[in-house]
Amino acid sequence: MSHLLPVLPSMRDLDVTAVIDILVVAFLVYQCLMVVRGTRAGHILAGILVMVALYAVSLWAGLGALRSVLALIVPYIGLAVIVLFQSEIRRTLARIGRRRMLGFGRGFRVPEALSEILMAVEELAAKKIGALIVLERDIGLRTFIESGVRLDARISRDLLLSIFQPGLPLHDGAAIAQKDRLAAAACFLPLTTNPTLSRALGTRHRAAIGITEETDCLSLVVSEETGRVSIATYGELSPALSIPDAMERIHLHFGVHRPGPMPIDQSPADVPMAGEAAPVMQDPAAASTEKVNQP
Fold first, then answer.
1. In the predicted model, what is the mean pLDDT of residues 6-17?
2. 3-state helix, strand, coil in the chain (%, to 5)
3. pTM (2 d.p.)
């Protein structure tokens, strides 16, 4: 308790504004730690903190030589943070600026040609043809579209199959879809540098994860070795999905609520089909007379 006595006078000035201020700062620090968790940036941040701690120790202990050496390095830490953490800073600012987070968005639309995309993916998976299709959501992908071959064509199953045929010029790289249009093909995407990922993942899967680390898009990947379909969102990979599971995950990512089963009393099963005679309603009085006359 004796150690807490010097702190008690300052607690009297703690009001609602100060509490809100502390909670906001704690939230920002927590978000920064979550951004660098599990990435190489976490180790870099730990090294920077060690250097700052050593500088503070040298000032407190009067270590002149160590303080002089660190004094030449510490002023450049701010610049080093910007250079080393540029991808993490860019990803964080992009997530903060999303319209849904700020409350300006009216929801997102799943690509109108989703059925065409999934039919193409199913056939590519059956033939074990590698493919990478990126579905744009809210954050624009213009930078990556300009790195490939501009198409601006309506999405169709045949178009996607022809793009990813092995040996053709557009086979390598990613195809980027915007709503019902295929914006470009053979696009270059950033590769993820997450050290926790399996080393068995190839370049195509790492590119699918890398683009989702920087934007809010969704990546569909078909493995060339196994033919398995995977989906990457927000830096996470969901491997070996069936086509129905892939459709559910796409709808979930784009915030689309699929219609539930129709109640049985609203089912059109009682409607007669073409060529089928509708049942004739019989008068109840005539039915009773007919039963009496029967032997």
1. 63
2. 50, 15, 35
3. 0.61
